[in-house]
Each structure stands twice: as structure tokens, then as C-alpha cells.
Amino acid sequence: MYLSKVTLLAFTLFVEISGRKLSKESKSSKSQTTKSDKSSPTSSPTFGAVFTMTNGGNSNEILMYSRNTAGRLVFQSQTDTEGKGGNTLSAVSDDPLGSQNPIIVAGKCLLAVSSGSNEITSFEIKSETSIRRENKVDSEGRTPVSLTEYDGIVYVLNAEDGGSIHGFDLDPTSCKLSSIIGSTLPLDQSPVVDSPVPDPPLSVTLPPVIAAPTQISFTPNGRSLIVAIKGIRGHAVVFGGSIVQFEVNTLTGLASPNPTSNLIGLDSVLPFSFDFDGEGNLLLVDAFGEGPIVGGDGASVISYKVRNPGPNREISRIDRITLEGQFAAGWIKYNDDCAYTTNSGTHSVSGLSVHNGQLSDSFVASLGTDTLLNNPLDLNFSHDGFLYVLSTNSGQGAPADPPVGEPAIHVYERTNRNDCTLTEIQVINDGIPTEGQNAGATAARNGEGTVGIAVY
User: Is residue 128 part of a domain?
Assistant: First the structure.
């Protein structure tokens, strides 16, 4: 009888892994077919859409905009996630979640975190005017802030209680999420009283929104997960944060419980978000630059070589560039030899050239003017090169700041593909609740406010 049970257990495990392998092979085959069809006009989506979310404490809702071939948006619908936004990380709506990619598109599916209720909601994108809610799952942690997907495997980053990650399978047909058992891994960032490094020149205890995990993303080849962490265990020191790399088993979807943790060191005061260039190098944006925060040299972008997981495979710095005169840069996206950051402290978008990790020609691509580019946060590109920037327009309080107005999405076009210049073609605030409507000043409504940009 004992032998039978063991045999049955082994057979069940074999079937489960084989089934996952067949599923992955099927998805890989489908992915290869899709890639080979990219040159065909019929392979592109027959319609386009842009999404953001209200992140409201009573109801987190998805705002959907149709997108025409000229990149312009028209507000279409508002759909409840059946989750709640808001969190205890932030007391203001200027930067509600302190993260990048809280809402993402994966194939024909849309995924969004609800940080206040610790949930993820999945939708199927049905048309240019509608999405259909498919299911809602627990994030298996506290305060989910960032999502990533590769070949049907989804991971979420939970920012509180020391931080953690958890994995899910995504059905590409139904867009339903199912938890991967045993995929929760801690980040061990619970705050400590004393400095986490010995004898630092500067150690400042910071609120969670400034010292917390901020983004999770698969590497372009899907073999690793990268997590960026602001600060170290609740402190900002000259070692301003870390980049953590997890190896991923592509058959089981499980990340390795023994990640490689890379202390950023003097490169960065406050590392925030990241993206990858065309060669797979990591582009990390830092809010204040090198050195202690009191002496930082301004916002910057740093490039790193990311190696496949294994012994002695730490990331290595390639290049660094200062975003002249810009501060509080938090979000970054790469597009065709250019990278762009949003700088909430100086109400601007910066552009720079990127060639195999080498960074050059930093400039201010867009500045707060009468169109109220005020406190820009998330940004994202469409497949045809239009840039969408979410601006909260909540203001920073300085006399020179643009006037406070309604939150808006700014649309830019790269009119000259030979450089990184941008031309603003639209500003739309239809459908987006104002700060007063969505994010009150009371403690009970901390961390609310519209966040995230996802493009289909």
C-alpha cells in the first residue's frame, strides 16, 4: 500500500510537470508564430487602447481609452476591479503607490493590482470600448504595487511586511489567473532601528513610500526576475538600495529562493524604477543622483549588464548620465534607442540616447507649461511609438510650480526617429477623477489617486 501511494504521488507529479511543459511548449510555439507574423500588417491589433486606474479606497476602477492610428485618445469606459486601492505607504496622492507597472497588458489580457485589498484583477480586452472582468485573486502579500508577465507566468510585488513576491499562471485564452503553489518568496526588507550597514556616512530612517520595493520585471529572455528596492530595510544610506535577481524555472514558474542581491552603493541615492534596452541591459532611474541625499547631483539614469543566473553573476555597471537640472525622477521607459523618464519634482519628461547600454545626449523633452504637465508619474509606449504620460497635476507647493489642475494623460509622438525629441499632440482628462474626488487629505484615504499606464 505504501509503495502504491508513492508511485501514485510520483505519477501525479510527473503528469503535472509534463502538462506544464506541454503548455509552455504550446505557448512558446504560439509566441514564435506571433513573432514571425510581426512583419505582416494583420499581426498588429485591429484596435488600440490605453488604460489607467483610479486606485480609489472605496473602489479601484479601470479607465479605458480607445486609441486611433494617430495616437489620440477618446475616453470609453470605467470598469470596477471589485478591489480597493489606497495603502499605508503614502500619505499623499502625488505618488500613491511609489512603484512602476501596477497595471499591465499581457496579450489580450489586462491585469491590475488593488493595493488596499491586496488583490489582483484580470480582464479580457474585448474591443476598443470594453473589457470584461474575468477573475480576482489574492496577491498573497500586503500592498501589491507592481506586476510583470512572461509567457503566461505572472509575478506580483508586494511592498509591505518586508516585501514579497508571488507567482501566478495566466490562461491566455480566458485571462484567468491561478496561484502557483509555493511561489511566495520574502524580500527581507522589514525596517530595523539601527543602520543596516556598518558605520555609514549617512543613515536616515525614511517613510515606507521612500524606502520600499518599487518594481518587479522579467528580464527580456524570461530567465530571471528583477526587483528594485528603494533604501535598505527602511533606511536610506549611501548604499541607496538594491537590485535583486531571482532565477526562474520556466517549467514550474517557481523563482529560486536564493536570489542574488546587488547593493547599488554610491551609484544611487534613491533607485526607483527600471526598464531594459534593446540589448537586454537594465536602465535604472534614480530620483536624486549619486552620494548622500543631501549632496546628490540630480536625477540620473544608470545602465547595468544583467547576466543569466548562476554563481558570481552579479550585475555590473556600464554607464551613468545625469539628467541636468532634474529631480525626483521616478519612472522610465525605453523605445528604439531612446529612454524617457518622468521627473515629478521638476514637472518634466527627460529624454536620452541609449546604444547598447551607453547613455548620452540627455535633454528635457517636455516641461510643465500651460498644458499642466504637473507631477508626471507613470509613462508607457505603444507598439507604434506614441508615448503616454500620466500627470496627477497635484502640485508640489513651490511658487514656480505649474498651477494645480485636473489629472490628465499627455500624448507625445516621436516625429523624428533619428533623435529622441517628442511632440505633444494631445492632453486628455476625460474620465479621470480629480484629487479631491479620489484622494482626500485625511489619513483614512492615504495612498489614493490615479496611477499606472498600460497600452494595448
Answer: no
Strands of the 213-218 sheet, one edge to the other: 213-218, 224-230, 241-247, 260-263
Residues 419, 351: Cα–Cα separation, whole Å: 10
Whole-structure pTM value: 0.85
- Separation CA 447–CA 86 (nearest Å): 4
d(CA 28, CA 36): 12
| C-alpha grid cell, residue 233 | 530595510
Neighbours of 9 (CB within 10 A): 10
**Total structural domains in the chain?**
1
The CATH number given to whatever domain includes residue 373 is: 2.130.10.10
Q: Which domain holds residue 346?
A: 145-442
- Strand 386-391: give its sheet, edge to edge: 376-381, 386-391, 408-413, 423-428
| φ, ψ at 163 (rounded to 5°) | 85, 145
Residue by residue, DSSP assigns 43-69 as GS-SSEEEEEE---SS-EEEEEEEE-T
Q: What is the Cα–Cα distance from 404 to 320, expressed in whole angstroms?
A: 33
Residue of 120, 124, 179 lying closest to 146 (CA atoms): 120
Q: What is the pLDDT along the chain (456 residues), one digit of tens a residue?
A: 333 333 333 333 333 434 444 444 444 333 333 332 333 333 456 789 999 999 988 899 999 999 999 999 999 999 999 999 987 665 555 678 889 999 999 999 999 999 999 999 999 999 999 999 999 999 999 999 999 999 999 999 999 888 899 999 999 999 999 999 999 999 976 555 455 555 544 445 555 556 688 999 999 999 999 999 887 654 554 446 789 999 999 899 999 999 988 877 666 667 889 999 999 999 999 887 765 554 556 789 999 999 876 666 778 999 999 998 888 888 999 999 999 999 988 889 999 999 999 999 999 988 766 456 888 999 999 999 999 999 987 665 554 555 566 789 999 999 887 889 999 999 999 999 876 665 443 445 556 789 999 999
Domain for residue 79, yes or no?
no
Q: Would you say 206 and 231 are in contact if contact means Cβ atoms under 8 Å apart? A: yes
Positive or negative, the CA dihedral 289, 292, 294, 297 is negative
380 domain residue, yes or no: yes
Instruction: Compute the distance between CA of residue 268 and CA of residue 321 in angstroms, rounded to an integer.
Output: 12
Q: Is residue 135 part of a domain?
A: no
Neighbouring CB atoms inside 10 A of 81's CB total 26
